[in-house]
Amino acid sequence: MTDVRSAQRWWLPLLRALPRVVAAALWTAVDTGRPPWRPRRRRWDRALLLVAVVYAFVVATTTSGSGEERLSGGLFPLCAAPLLLGLVLAVRRPLDGWRLSLLGLVLTGYVLPPPPAPAPVLEGWQWLLWCPLLLAAAWASARRVSVGVAVVSLVLVTVLGATTPWPVDLRLTLPIAYVGVLAPLVVGGSLGARWDARRALEAEQARTAEAQAARGALAERARIAREMHDVVAHHLSLIAVRCETAPYRLAPLDERAGTELAEVAGTARSALTELQRLLGVLRTEDESAERAPQPGTADLAELFAGVRAAGTDLEVSVEDVDLPDILGLTVYRIVQQAVSNAAQHAPGAPVRVTVARADGVLRVEVVNGAGRAPGTPGAGAGLAGMRERAELHGGRLTAGPTPDAGFRVLAELPLAEVAR
Q1: Are strands 407-414 and 396-401 parallel, antiparallel or unpaired?
Q2: DSSP assignment string, 394-416
Q3: Which of 227, 268, 331, 400 is most buried as measured by Cβ atoms within 10 A of its Cβ?
C-alpha cells in the first residue's frame, strides 16, 4: 500500500503538469526573446537567414531529384513546404517553425504516396529538415516548453509509425526514431541551459558592478563630507577667534558691539562642535590619513612628481588660479583619481593634464593614450566619485574613450566665487 501511494505521489504531479507543457509547446504564445544564435548585427542576421534558405533549397532539390516518382510529383512540394518554411522561420522564431513542421510531417505521412518498399517512420530528408528544428526549439525555449516539444514529437512519431499506409517495422525503426527525436532535444536543451546560465552570470556581474559603483560613490560622498569638515572648520575657527579677540584688538568697543561679537563667536563654536559630532559618524577606524591637512592646487606639483617617479610619461599645463579651499581640494582629487585610473587601466600610456580657466569655467582635463600592457578592470567607483565632486560645485564631468584608444576625463567647474 505504501508503494502505491509513493507511486501516486510521483506520477500525479507529472500527469497534472503534462497538459500545461503540451499547451505551451503547441499553441500558447511563449516569448522566448532573441534566439541565442542570432547576431545583433543586421548584416550577419540576414546572412544566417540566407544560410537557412540555401540549406532548405538544397535538401528539397536533392530529394526531388533522387529518382523516386513519389518525391518528384506535384504532391511533394505541398507536403514538404511546411518543413521547408518552418526551417527558415526557425531562424527568428524557432518554436513557431517547429509547430509548422508538424503539419508537414502529417501531410507527408498521409498525403504523399507510399514508397514501393517498407520504409522507416521518417525518411532521411525529413530528418535533415526536422532535426535542426528540434534543436532550435529546445535551445531557445524554456525547460517546460522543451518538455512539451519532446512529448508532442514522440507522440507524433508513434502515431505516424502505427497509422501510416505503408508497412513499418515498429520494433526496429521506432526506437531509432525516438533516439532521433531526443538527441537534438537533449543537445538543444543543454545549449539552452548554458545560454541561460551565461545570461544569469552576466546579469549578476552587472548588478555587482552597479552595487560596487554605488558603494564607491557613497564612500566618496563620505570622504567629501570629511574633507568639507576640515575646510569649514578652519574658517569657523577663524571667525570665532577673530570675534573673541576683537575687544582686545579693537578696544575700546561699544558694549552692544562686544556682546554681538561674543554671540557670533559662541555661535561659531557651537557650529564647530556640531560639525565634529557629525564627523564622528563618518570616521573610519583608520583615521591617520584624515588627520593630514587637506591638499589643494598648490600640492599638484608634489603629486606630479610622484607620478613621474613611478615611470609615467606626464605632460602638465596648470594655470595659476586663486581657488577657494574646497574647490582647490576638488581639483586636486579629480586630477589624482584620473591619473590613478590612467595608470591602472592603461599602463605605460602617456598622460596629459590641463587645468585652465575659460569663459568663467575652470576646465580640468586628463587625457591618456593607449596602454602598452593590459590594464586592470575596475568597478567605476572612481568616475562616480569624480562626478560627485564636480556636481558638488554645480559643475559637470564627462569621461569616455578617445579615437586613439585612449581615455579622456573632463571636469568643468564654475568660477563664480573665484577672485578675479
Answers
A1: antiparallel
A2: T-EEEEEE-TTS-EEEEEEEE-T
A3: 331
How far, in Å, CA of 194 to CA of 382, rounded? 34
Burial of 126 (0-12, 13-18, 19+ CB in 10 A): buried
Q: Which residue has the cell 514529437?
A: 153
Q: Which strands form 407-414's sheet, in the order they lie side by side?
A: 314-318, 351-358, 361-368, 407-414, 396-401
Lowest-confidence region among 240-254, 293-307, 359-373: 240-254
Q: Biggest alpha carbon distance in the chain?
A: 129
143: confidence class by pLDDT, cuts 50, 70, 90: confident
Cell of 383: 568616475
pLDDT, residue 279, reads 62
Q: What angle do CA 370, 207, 191 make, to 5 degrees?
A: 90
Phi and psi for 325 in degrees, rounded to 5?
Answer: -60, -45
Per residue, the 3-state secondary structure of 300-363, as one string, reads: HHHHHHHHHHCCCCEEEEECCCCCCHHHHHHHHHHHHHHHHHHHHHCCCCCEEEEEEEECCEEE
- The C-alpha atoms of residue 197 and residue 204 are separated, in whole angstroms, by 10
Q: Are 108 and 127 in contact (CB under 8 A)?
A: no
43: three-class secondary structure by DSSP = helix
This model's pTM is above 0.90: no
Kindly report, residue by residue over 75-129, the tens digit of the pLDDT.
888 888 999 999 999 888 888 899 999 998 988 888 887 777 777 888 888 899 9
HSE-CB for 155 with a 13 A CA cutoff = 10
Q: pLDDT tens digit string along 248-305? A: 777 777 778 888 888 887 887 777 777 666 666 555 544 444 555 677 788 888 888 8
Residue 36: cis peptide before it, omega within 30 degrees of 0: no
DSSP 295: P
Q: What's the CA gap between 92 and 331, in Å, rounded?
A: 52
Cβ burial, residue 420 (10 Å; 0-12/13-18/19+): exposed
Of residues 103, 57, 104, the one with CA closest to residue 76:
104
Grid coordinates of 5: 501511494
CA distance 17 to 241: 81
- Which residue from 160, 158, 163, 188 is spatially nearest to 175, judged by alpha carbons? 158
Neighbours of 115 (CB within 10 A): 14
